Amino acid sequence: MTRDDKTAISRRNANFLYSIVGVALVLFLLGLFGIVIIQGQRIVKQFKEKVDVMVEFKPTTEKSQIDLVIKQLSASDYVKEGSIGFTSKDQAAEILREDFGEDFIKLGFNNPLYDVVTFNTKSEYMLSDSLSKIRSNLLNNPLISDVFYQEGLVDNIESNIKKIGYISLIIGILFIFVAITLIHNTIKLALYSNRFLIKNMELIGASWGFICKPYLVRSVKNGFWSALIAICMLVALMLFVQIDYSNFNDFQVPIELSILFAGMIVLGILISSLSTFYVVNKYLRMRLDDLY
């Protein structure tokens, strides 16, 4: 092997190394966007599940009857587990006395407050229609005086989530398009130095399938390594964030992160192999003079 041959091989290997790093950076940005979406959905879900629904009982309701209603709520599909709380009218009066500094009951008034049960719904039920149905079903109980929740807040949450969803979809499509374009151009530049080798193999009688096969195999390996590098960078970033923000670990969703990482591997391999196949066939279709 001559010195020029060694130099050419070294140059080609360097080009493929640059291609791996370039694709890894693009996949890293795409994965970072995916993590932002996942964590954003998690935060929105937790926020939705903190909206209180208050069930007000009639003054004649006994504590045993309230306990029965609490038991029924605990068995309901729409109630978040562990979110049910009970505040008696005496406890509510004590809270008001602490807030206002005056015991209005001692002034000769009867306690005007009611026994109240509060609970949070699961995030998928935090919709205007769903909450309206829940309220109607609860009011069918003759023991319940009324059901309250912040309707304006629920409507705002619902409206804002729709807007965020549309914006995220547009940004996601744009991100994927940019990622595909950048990865394709990176691979195209990496194969540019091999254009004469590809054409010469055709001129000596090699079939297109025979010529493409080694490049496709290498592209699959490169796509896998690029995705693996990007995943390692994302994991390192998340570990670094946890050092300063310990609560960040509470928002991580292992299943969804695993799906995201698997998608990055599939996307890296798929785009790399398809781009390689397209570029190699493009050089095969070109005339020898056009390669110059």
For this entry, give a set of tags:
292 residues; 8 helices; four-stranded antiparallel β-sheet; alpha+beta; disordered N terminus; 2 domains; Alpha-Beta Plaits
Descriptive overview:
- The protein contains eight helices and four strands, in the order H-E-H-E-H-E-H-E-H-H-H-H.
- The chain has helices at 3-48, 63-74, 89-100, 128-139, 151-192, 195-203, 208-244, 254-285, and strands at 52-57, 85-87, 116-120, 144-148.
- The protein is rod-shaped.
- The relative contact order is 0.15.
- Residues 1-11 have low confidence and may be disordered.
Helical percentage = 55-70%
Radius of gyration: 32 Å
Mean pLDDT: 77
Q: Which regions contain 5 or more consecutive residues with pLDDT less than 50?
A: 1-11
Q: Kindly name the structural category.
A: alpha+beta
Count of spatially separate domains = 2
CA-based shape: rod-shaped
DSSP summary: helix tally: 8
Most strands sheet: 4 strands, antiparallel
Strand order of the largest sheet: 2-3-1-4
Strand content: 5-15%
The sequence of SSEs as H and E is: HEHEHEHEHHHH
How many angstroms separate the termini? 25 Å
Write down how many β-strands occur, each being a DSSP E stretch of 2 or more residues.
Answer: 4
